[in-house]
């Protein structure tokens, strides 16, 4: 399970109408990667024609294995006579200390199982995972995450063959 958080912030500072302005643009992207072991209950209908329908519900505990971010800061200074822009980039900065190691999500899904022949079936379904635990603290030491309340959600398409 992985994800990205994009946040764009623009700050404009003007001292007086005739003075220079400073515009600071922040473009930040947070990427997290989790390994999850879903614990679910699967309820199936009886076979109707060649099809069985199912409902899946349960919890998905997860462990964070990697968290990093990219940031681009573009500072533009405009004065009555000149204009200059200074870009600064940070790529692949690791944030493991600010991201919670443990995550817990509620999982619910629906799908169909189509019998191909004998005990072989084609299975397809749609699942939604809603985070129950914040993946970061508001007191994070990294400025990218300070004041953020981040909860992970995921929608997945499942396709497989049962033998």
* Low-pLDDT windows of residues: none
Which assembly state applies to the chains in this document?
A: single chain
Helix-strand makeup class? mainly beta
Terminal residue distance:
26 Å
The largest pleated sheet is described as: 8 strands, antiparallel
Question: What labels describe this entry?
Answer:
mainly beta; 8 strands; 163 residues; 8-stranded antiparallel beta sheet
Blueprint (SSEs and pairs):
Elements: E1 2-14, E2 21-36, E3 39-44, E4 51-78, E5 83-94, E6 102-117, E7 120-131, E8 153-162
Antiparallel strand pairs: 1-2, 2-4, 3-4, 4-5, 4-6, 6-7, 7-8
Describe this protein's structure.
- The chain has 163 residues and is mostly beta strands.
- 0% of the residues lie in helices and 69% in strands.
- It has no helices and eight strands.
- It has strands spanning 2-14, 21-36, 39-44, 51-78, 83-94, 102-117, 120-131, 153-162.
- Strands 1, 2, 3, 4, 5, 6, 7 and 8 form an eight-stranded antiparallel β-sheet that branches.
- It is elongated and about 80 Å long.
- The chain starts with a strand and ends with a strand.
């Amino acid at each position: 399970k992985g994800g990205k958080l994009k946040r764009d912030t623009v700050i404009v500072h003007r001292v007086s109408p005739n003075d220079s302005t400073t515009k600071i643009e922040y473009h930040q992207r947070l990427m997290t990667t989790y390994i999850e072991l879903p614990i679910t209950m699967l309820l199936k209908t009886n076979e109707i024609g060649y099809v069985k329908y199912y409902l899946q519900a349960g919890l998905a505990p997860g462990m964070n294995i990697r968290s990093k971010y990219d940031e681009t800061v573009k500072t533009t200074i405009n004065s009555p006579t000149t204009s200059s822009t200074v870009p600064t980039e940070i790529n692949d900065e690791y944030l493991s200390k600010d991201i919670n190691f443990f995550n817990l999500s509620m999982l619910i899904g629906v799908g169909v199982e189509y019998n191909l022949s004998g005990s072989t079936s084609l299975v397809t379904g749609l699942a939604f995972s809603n985070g129950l635990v914040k993946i970061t603290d508001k007191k994070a030491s990294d400025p990218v995450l300070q004041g953020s309340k981040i909860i992970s959600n995921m929608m997945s398409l499942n396709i497989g063959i049962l033998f």
